[in-house]
Design a protein that fits this description.
This protein is 48% helix and 15% strand. It has 275 residues and is of the alpha/beta class. The protein folds into 2 domains: 172 residues, 3-Layer(aba) Sandwich (Rossmann fold); 94 residues. The protein has a 7-stranded mixed β-sheet, sandwiched between helices. The longest helix is centred in the last third of the chain and has 32 residues. It is globular. The relative contact order is 0.10.
């Protein structure tokens, strides 16, 4: 049986993984340093945390479900206790991209991250419809990268990824560099920023007298239909009035050089700030 040492098992992310791994084929050893996390594991899942040395003894896989800022410290603290061939799984590309993993060419480094449940989906169950993060009830896609290690190790990493992010639809293989373009580049620097701007725009029309519920309903409804056309979820074209609004609005809202956020120096700076 494949043995997994799960670090941060009782934390915000680790708890989700602990729950999803409960009925898997893997033997999981849970490492958690906080009393709150230990209690959460015990009270909610009936699991007991063990110390790091016990968890790592003979472990085949180590999953680091800890914050980006702690990845380097935790990985460095355990590297001498990992046997050659051990797979280390990290749940975000930031720390690996920034070079925070130890230089151990005899280890396998696997990086995986959820895409989260898509806006356009076929969920009908209420629990799934309200599972915005994923990994509980709603189906989602995932991305994974084999950063280093033998090619045959990818299958095991992807198998574990599909369990911890379940239920999974498409599983995409990318590189760590491509994952860094996706996050923080695409998802946070661009998407999150523009969504914050849209929320601020909604607040602005509310200040000008539009009832908040009306503004929110109007904006979210238009995000749905406009997004469906823009991202080719449905065939369609915008009206001449909408196209003219875009032609005027985009240069007002966006700098001409905004795509520089995807330049490697910008991605690197962003990840350095995160980690």
């Amino acid at each position: 049986m494949t043995v997994i040492a799960l670090f941060g098992a009782g934390g915000k992310m680790g708890y989700r993984l602990s729950k999803n791994l409960l009925n898997s084929r893997f033997e999981v050893r849970h490492v958690e340093v906080s009393d709150v996390g230990k209690a959460r594991l015990k009270d909610d899942l009936g699991l007991s945390a063990v110390d790091a040395d016990k968890a790592l003894d003979g472990a085949d896989v180590v999953v680091l479900a800890v914050p980006d800022t702690h990845i380097g410290k935790v990985a460095s603290s355990i590297q001498d206790k990992l046997k050659a061939g051990t797979m280390v799984i990290v749940l975000d590309a930031a720390a690996p991209f920034a070079g925070h993993l130890p230089e151990r060419p005899d280890l396998t480094y696997f990086v995986t991250h959820p895409c989260h449940p898509p806006i356009f989906n076929d969920e009908t169950d209420m629990a799934a419809k309200r599972d915005f993060f994923g990994g509980v009830a709603a189906k989602q896609h995932i991305v994974s990268a084999l950063m280093q290690g033998p090619e045959e190790a990818y299958a095991l990493g992807e198998e574990i990824a599909k369990v911890i992010w379940a239920p999974v639809m498409r599983s995409h293989r990318v590189t760590v560099e491509q994952m860094a373009l996706l996050e923080p580049g695409l998802s946070e620097t661009v998407c999150a920023s523009l969504l914050v701007v849209m929320r601020e725009a909604m607040d602005e029309v509310v200040k000008k007298g539009v009832p908040k519920e009306a503004a929110r309903d109007f904006l979210l409804g238009h995000m749905n239909v406009l997004g469906a056309v823009i991202f080719e979820e449905t065939p369609g074209v915008f009206s001449d009035a909408c196209n003219k609004a875009i032609e005027f609005g985009k240069p007002v809202l966006m700098r001409d050089d905004w795509k520089r956020v995807f330049d490697w120096d910008e991605i690197t700076d962003s990840i350095r700030r995160i980690t």
